[in-house]
Write a structure and sequence with these properties.
15 helices; six-stranded mixed β-sheet; seven-stranded mixed β-sheet; alpha/beta
Amino acid sequence: MVYTDTIAAIATALSSSGIGIIRISGSDAVAVAERMFEPAVAGKRLSEQKTYTIHYGYIRDGEERIDEVLLLLMRGPHSYTAEDTVEIDCHGGVLVMKRILELAVKCGARLAEPGEFTKRAFLNGRIDLSQAEAVIDVIQSKNEYALQSSVSQLSGSMSRKVRELREKLIYEIAFIESALDDPEHISLDGYPERLAVVVAEQKKQVEKLLASADEGKMIQEGIKTVILGKPNAGKSSLLNLLAGEEKAIVTDIAGTTRDVLEENLVLKGISLRILDTAGIRKTADTVEKIGVDRALEHAKDADLILYVVDASVPLDENDAKIMEILKGRKAIVLLNKSDLTAVIEKEEMEQKTGAPVISISAREETGMEELEEQMKKMFFQGEISFNDEVYITNARHKQALLEAKKSLELTAGSIEMGMPEDFFSIDLMNAYEELGSIIGE
């Protein structure tokens, strides 16, 4: 145990609800709870009760009965913090939760710092650092995939992968060190060639994890999706349709949207950060020109561009400018106003843009299912599996993997140049330590 003091905090949101939970953890958690808890049926004292038991009774401050509660007793090391832990389930009123917390402090606990229960779980060896970080990711998950990814990391998927990589590296480090210390009994003849194979394999595994970072970022933060098109193509109508409400002003007047409108929403379990932009065209209007410039700036770092085309009017130089932007980018072309007579063919747009083309009608609300499926297919190959795959959603993890990759590349370079074996162990140890920083070892 790292700590000897006992902490207490309200574990649920501080708002009116059916149930509120006050959590107490530490070496005196049971003693603190015993001073304030009165069992409904007289019997054993709380300190004499078995772990993983629930007790019905009342919280009392002297002669005053504060609330009727259920008390959960969990003894360490088999608790979240690996310490003796008591949870008090009371009625979820703000006043009653505050009164019970104040009483816990009065009876010997202290107020927990933000995140201290998870910090103790980490420092007491109950979870590693990547799992501790996954706790807040679970709480802040905005979509189904982000939740699955966070729960997967909380259960140790990242930890297992990192430990597997580190085991291979530490074996080679130990072998080199042993051979250098005892060359009479351990030979390094032919070893560089064998090590080169191991290093190449480990580098491949690290690169596989790094390759998932972009998808992981989008799982966690959402796909930055920019809607581009000429004025009156139906961009704002599309935003309103996707959002399910009137977010943008829609008129027949060209240039109605002059600034960037942003909306966060979830489609098919995927989070999208959708930006509706000003129509792309040459204009003498100063304000509209600023809007067009902003649209082009956002398009530069977009994960996905939705190019909305009015299929009822011919293409012009403004369309040519937008299609130039699409080159080398992930994009979907939406032939809007399919309810009107079309003068632009789907095959024509596929040839010009090289992007998938979907016919939609924002007015008739058609084509949305196909659009959602196409986005899912484009970014996640139609499905995301968290059984075997690990997705890097944390920037700190990505940086550590990049450093580990660099060290493995240096090791491979040293082998190729025929450097002494102690050069190998230096870079291998760097890779080992960078990987260890992910899980806090």
